[in-house]
Design goal:
By secondary structure, this protein is an alpha/beta fold. The chain is built from nine helices and eight strands. An eight-stranded parallel β-sheet has the order 1-2-3-4-5-6-7-8, sandwiched between helices. The radius of gyration is 17 Å and the shape is globular. The relative contact order is 0.14. Bound molecules: zinc ion.
Length: 275
Amino acid sequence: LFDPHCHLDDPAFAEPTLDLALRQALQAGVGSALVPGFGPGRWPRQSELLLNQRGFLMWGAFGLHPWAVDPAQDIDSLRLVLERGWQDHAQKWGEGLVAVGEFGLDRSRRGQVVPWDLQGALFGWHLQRARLGKLPVILHLVRSHGAALEQLTAQPPPGGVVHAFGGPVETVPAYLELGLCLSFGSALMHREKARESLRATPPEQMMFETDAPGGLKGDFPPPLGPAHLPKIVEAASQVLGKSVEYLLARHRENCARVFGLPLLLGPADEPPRRR
Ligand SMILES: [Zn+2]
């Protein structure tokens, strides 16, 4: 199984916790993950993981998470940070670079410290980067669907996913229309808004993720790693009344198609559509 959103570069996964978390993941049948970009402080660790695989397959996305933006910097200096990071890290990942993200807009208490205009300009940088590199996007959106959909409609990305989708359900059709997938995490276990949105998403456009370690806090015992992915798919299976096997097959096909990872599919599966 593949976890399309797992922050294995997080300090919570410092050694030896990382080894333990990866061993547990392999025992649970999860053998690969996508490590999304967070920010300049963690890009070196992300590079280290992507360039030194350890019996657990990792791919990466490059981006600046809204929580990692220094609100004291202006857009010009942040663009420089991003361009330099792109050169020093993303460009060295080769085939390991499969997406741009995670990036987005965030109006939560934590996100609000970054000026709204700055968030919008950074959103634009990432969208442009994705379009230039023909890479899918990994979006982090909190209470900002209107503004996000405006930019996404004006500059449609070449595919991608809204991660940790938690509703509202009214916004689901607009993302589907843009050809994006919606990815669901442990919120399925306790938030009706997330369940409602899952029910409104066709199987061809859904994914499941741990968003570990942050996305699992309170729901699972540590180490909060990719080992917990099957439990999230079980929760989705209960919400939808469809079998775990069926949902896992759709999850793999969708991840393979969106991120261009055909090796996620077994020989009996349909070949994925190329990006
Ligand atoms: Zn994340």
